[in-house]
Design a protein that fits this description.
With 142 residues, the chain is mostly helical. The chain is 68% helix and 7% strand.
C-alpha cells in the first residue's frame, strides 16, 4: 500500500506534464490556426500515403477522434480524403497545397518544445527517460 502513493504521485505528475506540454504546443500552433493534434496529423499525413487507421496510433486518438480531426482539417482546406487504390474500403489522407505549405513549419514547433522540455538534461538522462516511458507504454498495452 505504501508504494501506491508514489506511483499515483508520479502518474499525476506525468499527466500534468502531458497537459502542460499540450497547452504550450496548442498556443504555438494557434498561429497556424491548428491544434496540436491537427498539426501532428497533418505532419504525419504529409506523404499522402497513410490511411486514418495507420495514423490513429501516431496521433493517439480513436476512430471518432480521427474522424473529427479529418473533418476539421478538411473544413480548413488543409487535407482531403482520397480513395485508396490499394483498398477500396479505405481512404488515404492527402494534404492539400495549403496543408503541404504548412508541413515544413510544423516539425520545428514540436522540436522547439521538446528542446525546451529537455533543457539541462544529458543525453544519457534523455535516453533513460525515453526508455522508462516506453516501458510504461508497453506495460499498459500488455
Amino acid at each position: 500500500m505504501t508504494q501506491t502513493v508514489p506511483m499515483l504521485g508520479g502518474g499525476s505528475l506525468l499527466h500534468r506534464l502531458v497537459r502542460d506540454m499540450t497547452t504550450v504546443l496548442d498556443r504555438r500552433f494557434a498561429a497556424f490556426g491548428l491544434t496540436t493534434q491537427q498539426a501532428a496529423l497533418l505532419l504525419a499525413a504529409g506523404s499522402g500515403t497513410s490511411t486514418p487507421r495507420q495514423l490513429m496510433d501516431v496521433i493517439g486518438t480513436d476512430t471518432a477522434g480521427m474522424t473529427k480531426l479529418l473533418d476539421r482539417l478538411q473544413a480548413k482546406g488543409l487535407a482531403e480524403r482520397h480513395a485508396n487504390p490499394a483498398d477500396r474500403r479505405s481512404v488515404l489522407i492527402v494534404p492539400t497545397e495549403g496543408g503541404l505549405a504548412l508541413v515544413p513549419k510544423l516539425a520545428p514547433v514540436f522540436g522547439d518544445v521538446v528542446k525546451d522540455l529537455f533543457d539541462g538534461f544529458s543525453d544519457a538522462e534523455i535516453a533513460q527517460f525515453t526508455s522508462a516511458l516506453q516501458r510504461m507504454k508497453d506495460n499498459l498495452q500488455s
